């Protein structure tokens, strides 16, 4: 028998961590957690997890709360552990281009600190307040993925709190290191199902000296394909290549960003403009504003957002599929890392229609790994959030049983 | 406890792999007694050479059923004893799985079997203007399967990353004999990134039978310089200033006086007689390289370079790299034997750690040459000794272990690219706590509950009875002139 909420609030395991009962704002797909705790140290996270194991309490971790829609509808949540109490920059070794942060630090906080030495952690925040730990757990990425990859590509070390109340590390503080299993990278995409991420060490990049973006409106998918082939076949090295469109509502918007040394940024943007066959070159505050707005659009939706992947050369087929999704009663928007074959689709319309679009995407040969990032609970009742996990699901479940034998972490919500 | 290999078991293996796919002759088995690590060896009772994923799967199934341990082996160029046979176990040689399955230029990926060499991937795509980025110095002979096991790097990983950053998907035979297809986080596959876990697991979690790697466009421009310095500290400060200027070179390599002398004696790259030389290479978009290269040159001058040679053409560049890449093998010109260490320190700690190595050199009476990836703090001290002088080999091993402790004290790692293998597992508890190691072992046990997949590697165990420690001996591949030690 589990403890009452009042008893939980009095529990000694909370050991000074800020605790309160769950409120409306804490709801996950309409389910309010019984208790919200905000530990302030890694040790508190570990002792709370040990107690949760002892008492058989289900646990959900929350960073900035920007990805709360990501996951199946929980049957119930005993403990919501907010990681925002752990938000320190532990070390910034600027001469070594590495830094260690607590997992609850937001990408904005982190980059504000790193910017003092003209360095950055080039990961996209998918919403205001996205945390580092959340980015790793969800394998989240945005336009910068074109150049820098996903969080795991920059992650060099991790510290975890496990369900048995231990604090353990893997990796280290150096950019090159092959000692032991790379459990940090394994945590990528684990969605809080294996352990709590309490801190992480990243390799950093110098901030580019200059940045220019070519923004072009292209009338149809044929011109998009032509422009992308020209860009990809060139020796240009963009930081990001993004494609955005509303199904059935031309034009397509192509954004190619070049951030490097000043003369090279100017030269590459001009060359890209030639290859794309038009568009304007934007820089300075205007450029920053465009990317902020672009990122914001990708994240916010009243309807469903799905993530998906395709082979880069399959883009014409993906665009053809996308265009068939247009209809009068709803809207479908594509936001894509066009040169990589990855992107998001936002679907707004009736619940049944949102669900049917997801099913159509899953049935299509041209795209794969169609997962729901955010959706109204009614959509999630109709379509599974994760889709087929394949052989990896069996192996991941075995790892899950080893790390979380009672199945408490993100119970029923996560991919494993 | 593991079962023993008897005649019936051997017949089963033969039935799976055919009579040409099984090695039983004692002389032939000697080829498999070690990898390119000199001092750990064990003659395996049997080696199988499957020529398909299905055969690998059947062999592993058989081993799993009979509780017989097994070790996957690529081309035996590993430097940490990762492929040293397990006593009483089967060696599964993957050299016959050497087909290039698909070269997909539009999608920028190549699918190969594990026995394909690293360089072969680049050869396949070079005509189209592409290359495979990770470039371990042994790339002409090392296998991609081995690269996956070790998460191999190379001189250019400062900018381009390691094997893990380039593997899109693998097919793998798991320890229970299941053949699975796994996709990495690069493909947005939901769930924990199992490919990242397998890459660098040193053959302890699975045997890959197919690897999909991404390929990169060959950079438009490459420029290389060789700068000589009076002091290591001067060379190190040049590296720091390059980084501080916001430049990430494709490679930054450093060699000290002894390794310069050895390289000169062996391959005559025309290096100046200096306390240290620095090789700095920038690559990428032409406009960018043209803008940044003069800055690098200026920094080298400002930090006290006594001479700077800029490669005017591909030939000159190749000559500079030949001097660097031959450095390990060249030690043979200045010392009868040598021991290669692989440790990492935060880059800014390089001068401090090198001073400690100098002090150690004086104390232990052995010369220590230093060749390293200065950009990422990956040291390769080469400890010179003479096996004919009693006690020197042991002193070399001791000195090499002490250097690892310096690396750890500086906040670094016991291995940057050669792996832990059988060689350095005893150092794992110095880098990780019991709790850290226990978590890794729990993950391992979840995937390999029978503890059959390359047991005794990576994690500390009592020394295996079949391992015979001893001084450096040439690997058969080296003897045959097929491989050099880098």
Quickly list its features.
heterodimer; A: 416 residues; alpha+beta; Uridine Diphospho-n-acetylenolpyruvylglucosamine Reductase, domain 2; Uridine Diphospho-n-acetylenolpyruvylglucosamine Reductase, domain 3; Alpha-Beta Plaits; 4 domains; 8-stranded antiparallel β-sheet; 5-stranded antiparallel β-sheet; 14 helices; 19 strands; globular; B: 486 residues; 17 helices; 34% helix; disordered C terminus
User: What structural class is derived from the secondary structure elements of chain B?
Assistant: alpha+beta
Tell me the strand order in the biggest sheet of chain A: 15-12-14-13-17-18-16-19
Largest sheet of chain A: 8 strands, antiparallel
CATH C-level class of the domain at 221-329 in chain B: Alpha Beta
Principal-axis shape of chain A equals globular
Spans where pLDDT lies below 50 across 5 or more residues of chain B: 462-486
Q: What is the CATH third-level topology name of the largest domain in chain A?
A: Uridine Diphospho-n-acetylenolpyruvylglucosamine Reductase, domain 3
Short overview:
The complex is a heterodimer of chains A (416) and B (486). With 416 residues, chain A is an alpha+beta fold. Chain A has helices at residues 5-10, 42-55, 107-115, 132-138, 145-148, 151-154, 183-187, 221-233, 262-276, 284-299, 315-324, 351-363, 377-382, 391-403; strands at residues 18-21, 35-38, 59-62, 79-82, 89-93, 98-102, 119-120, 155-161, 167-171, 196-203, 205-206, 210-218, 240-246, 249-260, 280-283, 304-309, 331-337, 342-348, 368-374.
What features would you describe in this structure?
The complex is a heterodimer of chains A (416) and B (486). With 416 residues, chain A is of the alpha+beta class. Chain A folds into four domains: 5-82, Uridine Diphospho-n-acetylenolpyruvylglucosamine Reductase, domain 2, CATH 3.30.43; 89-206, Uridine Diphospho-n-acetylenolpyruvylglucosamine Reductase, domain 3 (2-Layer Sandwich), CATH 3.30.465; 208-297, D-lactate dehydrogenase, cap domain, subdomain 1 (Alpha-Beta Plaits, 2-Layer Sandwich), CATH 3.30.70; 301-403, Alpha-Beta Plaits, CATH 3.30.70. Chain A contains 14 helices and 19 strands. With 486 residues, chain B is of the alpha+beta class. Among the domains of chain B are: 221-329, Alpha-Beta Plaits (2-Layer Sandwich), CATH 3.30.70.2190; 335-414, Alpha-Beta Plaits (2-Layer Sandwich), CATH 3.30.70. Chain B is built from 17 helices and 19 strands. In chain B, strands 12, 13, 14, 15, 16, 17, 18 and 19 form an eight-stranded antiparallel β-sheet that branches. In chain B, strands 5-6-10-8-9 form a five-stranded antiparallel β-sheet. In chain B, a hairpin with a 4-residue loop joins strand 5 (100-104) and strand 6 (109-112). In chain B, helix 1 packs antiparallel against helix 3, helix 8 (232-244) runs antiparallel to helix 10 and helix 13 runs antiparallel to helix 14 (392-409). Chain B is globular. Classes of the chains: A alpha+beta (416), B alpha+beta (486). Chains A and B meet through strand 9, helix 7, strand 11, helix 9 and strand 16 of A and strand 9, helix 7, helix 8, helix 10 and helix 16 of B.
